[in-house]
Amino acid sequence: MSRRSGILEFAVLGLLRESPMHGYELRKRLNTSLGVFRAFSYGTLYPCLKTLVANGWLIEEPGHTAEDALAAPLAGRRAKIVYRLTAEGKEHFEELLSQTGPDAYEDEHFAARFAFFGRTPQDVRMRVLEGRRSRLEERLEKMRASLARTRERLDDYTLELQRHGMESVEREVRWLNELIESERAGRDLRGSASGEPDSQDTTSGAPGGLPRPGDASRPDTPDDTAT
């Protein structure tokens, strides 16, 4: 499994852990709630869904809304399929939540992991946050060393671009420091004392101002019949 397909499977399972969805709604949630998936297509999502169904982690059900009931007679379209997490799928998602390997610290995977921190145990959150901070501190050190070596050979615009990149990393390190301090103090993101995972619905957007590529999403075409 590629790293990106693994991230997508994790995110799909996490969103379906909240409620069943059909493919169009699921893609829209991935686009708007998890910015790292803004550019992916149905051609990427449906193979992922079929793999999860084949593994027994999802089941396919016919849609039950009034709109779905009317879809079949209109222009020969089939009703939308709803994807539901199975008991095995829930267990697998919980297992994935507990993992804190190096992949969890990378840019795309960290954003997906953070979006589901409300369901993640506190000790796991701490390991992921500290791992991410260490990874960024290493990146920042390399960026500073590179800038020191090449400063005299760069034009003003390239130099400014590199400074901008460093400032972005520095901001995220400061943000991570604040989150880690809150976790150690036993506070959730709303400042109340809590030893349990935050129960807020993190799928509606990354809490705490998570840096992400952008909030805008491309228009979707609601062609979500079964394939």
TrEMBL record:
Keywords: Coiled coil. It comes from the Bacteria. Residues 184-227 are annotated as: Disordered. Pfam families: PadR. SUPFAM superfamilies: Winged helix' DNA-binding domain (SSF46785). Residues 126-167 form a coiled coil. Residues 12-95 form the Transcription regulator PadR N-terminal domain. InterPro entries: Metal_resp_DNA-bind_regulator (IPR052509), Tscrpt_reg_PadR_N (IPR005149), WH-like_DNA-bd_sf (IPR036388), WH_DNA-bd_sf (IPR036390). PANTHER family: CONSERVED PROTEIN, PADR-FAMILY TRANSCRIPTIONAL REGULATOR. This is PadR family transcriptional regulator.
